[in-house]
Amino acid sequence: MGGGVGDGGLFSGGEKQTMQNLNDHLANYLDKVRALEEVNTDLENKIKEWYDKFGPGSGDGGSGRDYNKYYSVIEDLRNQIVTATVDNASMTFPINNARPGAEDFKMK
Predict the structure, then answer these.
(1) What is the pLDDT of residues 53-106, one digit of tens each?
(2) What is the per-residue pLDDT for 51?
(3) Bigger pLDDT: 14 vs 39
(4) Do residues 63 and 56 lie in contact, with contact meaning Cβ atoms separated by under 8 Å?
């Protein structure tokens, strides 16, 4: 039932052949792992080279562009939006406060 040593399981009869087969599978697996590690290292090097050439701070376009000149414009536009929002609220507040009085006046 269980596949133990004495009941015709994994090591029954051809234990040496079974061990050799397992060793071969392990060797193939380790060879594949080594090959994948080499490919992975190669890809990591290519990615690093690409980032060195085109990445941030490279000066060759890509995402390495200097956007500092736009920050003051962005800040100015944000300030204009805040000012417009405050102005809008200051105009809306009296109108909303006057509505109940206007409705009372209509009812009379």
Answers:
(1) 887 766 555 555 778 889 999 999 999 999 999 999 888 877 777 777 767 777
(2) 85
(3) 39
(4) yes
Query: Per-residue b/e over 42-75, b at no fewer than 16 CB within 10 Å?
Result: eeeeeeeeeeeeeeeeeeeeeeeeeeeeeeeeee
Instruction: List the domain boundaries for the chain.
Output: 14-65, 67-108
Q: How far apart are CA 15 and CA 22, in angstroms?
A: 10
Token readout for 103 is: 């409705």
Tokens of 104: 């009372």
Asked if 50 and 43 touch (Cβ cutoff 8 Å), the reply is no
